[in-house]
Amino acid sequence: MFNSLQPLPPDPILGLSAAYRADTNPSKVDLGVGVYKDANGRTPVMRAVKRAEEVLVASQDSKAYVAPTGAAGYNEIVASLLLGNTLKQSLADRRVTVQTPGGCGGLRIAAEFIRQANPDATVWVSDPTWANHIPLLGSAGLQFKQYPYYDYDTHAVKFDEMLECLSKVPKGDLVLLHGCCHNPSGADLTIEQWQAVKEAALAQGFTVFIDLAYQGLGDGLDTDVYGVRLLAESLPELIVVSSCSKNFGLYRERTGALTLICETTEATAAATTLLAAAARANYSMPPDHGAAIVQTIMESPELSSDWDSELREIRDRINSLRALLVARLQIAGVERDFSFIEQEKGMFSFLGVNKDQIQTLIQQYSIYLVGSSRINIASINDDNIDYLVESIKAVL
Ligand code: LMR
Asked: Would you list the domain boundaries of the chain?
């Protein structure tokens, strides 16, 4: 039965990590997968996470099952992070949050929920979007269309075209937005643009679906969810999938959540049963450890304040690396204007080089970047910046 199977190509993002690991060039640089790296090129366990783990090891007295919807305490904490306490309270009867195995698990459960709610729904995704959105949501049977998003010439959101497209999306379809730190472009919506999206959603009646994987890595924990909060308080329905991979550095612990806002209390109660059933049918229940860490941190004033400080250090470092890369390219005499990189947010930007230049960077210079020219800014450090800048200059 298995003899006729053909191997699949490597994953466009995770495949780069394997190629990077196998590369023996001592100057190699990994700008591929979106993980934060410190000045020494390491992805550290955050201080508060380490301390929370010590607390958990000392205090946890059972490994009995959790519920398909996860830990209630964690779910409330996630909802507070997303919505803030006031909005969370005002939406109390219309909101449900369920713990999921990472943001990916949340996206998958959201996809199954959407299929149940409207089997004919089309999900409109940004052009471009995260390379795994369509495989992940599509594997649950959803169909897709694209709305214009990133202008590769101006390095900005082509919002007029985006809005024109959204103003034709019908009720029953979903529009998938990146809550902040757009992956792969780093180009985010402005406050005015979020407001215009809200008006379009109200006028058309489509459902907004937000993927929020980078809260706290752009401008700040609250600033980064301006759009989420605006839509949560204004629209009758909303889906938000969030992740603690990046902002708590819990990547491998698979710690995420799906938050739904429904129009009525009755719809919320029904939706909760569907989410629990989808979780049960897929993985029964989410893994506990990452969520228990988040809960332990956020229930301790001391740990949560330390987490907040370290997250700020991470965010500031990424933003300073953006400025550094732009400045160093300019100092090196590269004529092309890369100043857009400094305006963008989160881990990623497009370098804007072509397919041949990407292949040269990978094969000749051992600089690993995604095939769209997406680079992970958080991988730049004092040891690799000279080599990186010289290599980019050479391929240009
Ligand atoms: C990325 O975009 O690099 C991250 O979200 C990691 C992943 O799973 O692709």
From this structure: 11-44+315-395, 65-299
